[in-house]
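SEQUENCE-TO-STRUCTURE ENTRY
===========================
What this section holds: a protein sequence and its matching fold, both as plain text.
Tokens: labelled as protein backbone structure tokens, with as many entries as the chain has residues.
Question of interest: how does this chain fold, as expressed in backbone structure tokens?
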Amino acid sequence: MKHLLRFAVVALVAVVVAGCAGLQLRKAEQAQPPHGSDFDVALSNEYLDLARFEYQDGNYDSSDFFAVRSIEAGRGNLVLPVEMAERRIPDRAVGELSGARDRLITALDMTARDKAPQDAARAQAMFDCWMEQQEEDRQPADIARCREGFLEAMAKVDAVMAGVVEAYLVFFDFDSSVLTSEGMTIVRAAAADAAAAPFDRIVAVGHTDTAGSAAYNLGLSQRRADAVRSALVNLGIAAGDIETVARGQTMPLVPTGDGVREAQNRRVEVFVER
């Protein structure tokens, strides 16, 4: 009798655990339809598809992860692509995934959410899928599926954004936020481009190399973006039409190790968006 009772308790626990698995997926499905921008709706649906796929595959933790993201996006909340530090990615894949995330974030900063909402949502979901599969590192076919989905969607996003964005690079001296004469020439070109035809906004994104602490470099990148913004205002661009973003040392143009002085990473990227 004791053995039968023990078996019954174990069976009951198994049923309870199985019943809890995928709970977030059910919540996400009950939360439909999503609301918010076209991007929010598309992103919510993309994450829901991933949650369902992972559930069918028996990967309930990943199903819950994507289901929660679906719920948040469907509420109109800002959901960013997964940070590199949030996953344990094999060393051999870190470089490609870091570059992919930088490419995606840059497009999102350049209003891809508005200009290409469906493709941008697909790219973000497939990037997160790629990260999840690469961390597991057990199913090459699924890694390839997510990676190819990301690349296909990003190609479409890039094609759309190429027609609406002009980009300029303004470089800075080491540990400086003062515009050089060469940098001022580039800023004038960006201002002339903006004055030539109606535009939606200008975005100045500040970057640094990896010399110095991450906290210091974040502030330095903001000062560089602010310097470009001030120069554009002095050239006649309305201050309200210019946004600044600070990326610090997180998105190098030339990948380096920590503590490296690299001239091409000390920059502000200026985007004129139409």
